[in-house]
Amino acid sequence: MTLTALACFYTVVRRRAGYMLLGRSEQRKPPPPHDPSDPENDQSDDMLRISSFTTTAGLATEASSWFERPFEWVVQVFGHRKLLKDLRSGLMHVVLFYGFIVLQFGAADIIWKGLTGSALPYPAYHGFVLTQEITVALVLLAILYGTFRRYVERLRRLKRGWKPSIVLWFIGGLMVTVLLTQAFDRLKEAPPSGSGASDSIYASYAPVSSALADGFRNIGFSTDAGSVLYEIFWWMHLAVLLGFLVYVPQSKHFHIFTAPVNLWLRRRSPPGRLAPLDLEDEEAESFGVGAVEQFTQKQLLDLYACVECGRCTNVCPASSTGKLLSPMHLIVKLRDHLTEKGAAITSKSPWVPALSGSGASGAHVMSGAVPLWTGGASAETTIEPTMTAQKQGWHVQAGTSVTDLSLIGDVVTESELWSCTTCRNCEDQCPVGNEHVDKIIDMRRYLVLTEGRVPSEGQRAMQNIERQGNPWGLPRAERAAWLAAYEAAVPGAPPVRTMRDAASRGEQPELLLWAGTMGAYDQRSRKVLFAVVRLLQEAGIPFAVLGGEERNSGDTARRLGNELLFQTLCAENISTLQRYGIRRIVTICPHTFNALKNEYTDFGLERSVAVEHHTTLLARLVADGSLTPTVTLRERVVYHDSCYLGRYNGVYDAPRALLRAIPGVQLLEMERNRANGLCCGAGGGLMWMEERGGIRVNEARTAQALETSPTVIGSACPYCLTMMEDGIKLHDAESGVRARDVAELLAESVFGTE
Question: How far is CA 268 from CA 45, 60, 68, 69, 330, in A?
Answer without folding.
Answer: 26, 7, 10, 9, 23
